[in-house]
Write a structure and sequence with these properties.
The chain is α/β, with parallel strands linked by helices. The chain is about 20% helix and about 25% strand. The chain has an 11-stranded mixed sheet with strand order 2-1-13-14-11-3-10-6-7-8-9, sandwiched between helices. A 3-stranded antiparallel sheet has the order 5-4-12, with no helix packed on it.
């Protein structure tokens, strides 16, 4: 039986099925090549942790008890509506070491059928943002028909650039120095024909997209847990934001789970558009 959510905003007290909640947003229709729709999704504890760091191994991981079937299902509904995914070299390194699971492909038959019915390719393209260009290419990206691009800055190590180009990958130069910049990357992806862009790249990419007014929508799940830990990652790690950080709440849902499982909020915010106003699509 499909789980029910309680809609808290808007309007209050309405119950709705969790399955299909985000597919109904039709994100794949909201952007254009001239102005792609850029959206991100994060899972956070009540004390603001999105991941923990292993200080000994120098790796980042998400505790299993922080995740849930409901959250992952909605994460994949957002995945299914993307023309392309933006990830980063750190994720590829963690994936190769077994610290994180593979979220680069859609494997659910219903979601694959949904993409086909709505005119989307079998799998979204993958863009790997990296300043160092030092990461292993995951075998799943070599065994599918997914287009794969590597994004870096104009001052990236030319030997690493040459290495990836010799491997047959297109390198996009989307930053003035070594780091990838949000506006330049979105512009290049629009030129490639991508209209719906899903960020699964972590705090640094979210920061540049917000700073440069490229983020259209933020999805945020807050699980009713206090995670703790001295070494952790949060939603943002960059400089202090001004009005760029102002968001507008579009929807808020509550999932109530019986103890000892934690409940969670599913939240949807509009971010500032490229002209500085709040997007309300």
């Amino acid at each position: 039986m499909t789980k029910k959510l309680i809609r808290l905003f808007p309007p209050a007290s309405e119950q709705i099925d969790i399955k299909g909640l985000y597919l109904a947003h039709k994100i794949h229709l909201l952007g254009s090549c001239e102005s792609p729709f850029v959206y991100a999704n994060f899972l956070s504890s009540l004390d603001g942790r999105i991941a923990l760091e292993d200080a000994v191994e120098g790796s980042t991981f998400v505790p299993k008890h922080l995740t849930s079937v409901s959250d992952f299902g909605l994460f994949m509904e957002l995945h299914a509506q993307a023309d392309c995914l933006i990830t980063h070299g750190g994720y590829l390194r963690a994936l190769s070491q077994g610290h994180l699971g593979n979220i680069l492909q859609i494997k659910d038959a219903e979601l694959m059928a949904w993409r086909h019915e709505h005119g989307l390719k079998a799998q979204p393209a993958v863009i790997i943002a990296s300043a160092s260009l030092d990461f292993p290419m995951h075998e799943s990206l070599l065994n599918t028909s997914q287009p794969v691009y590597i994004a870096t800055g104009k001052n990236a190590d030319p030997e690493r650039v040459d290495y990836w180009q010799r491997q047959g990958f297109t390198v996009l130069f989307t930053g003035a120095d070594q780091l990838v910049q949000g506006a330049a990357l979105v512009h290049e992806l629009g030129k490639l024909g991508y209209r719906s862009i899903y960020l699964i790249a972590g705090p640094q990419m979210l920061d540049t997209m917000i700073q440069e007014h490229q983020l259209s929508r933020l999805y945020l799940t807050i699980t009713h847990q206090l995670l703790g830990g001295k070494d952790f990652r949060t939603l943002l790690t960059g400089s202090v934001l001004g009005q760029e950080g102002n968001l507008s709440l579009e929807a808020l849902f509550l999932e109530q789970n019986p103890a000892p499982e934690a409940g969670q909020f599913f939240m949807q915010f509009s971010a500032r558009s490229k002209n500085g106003t709040i997007d309300t699509d």
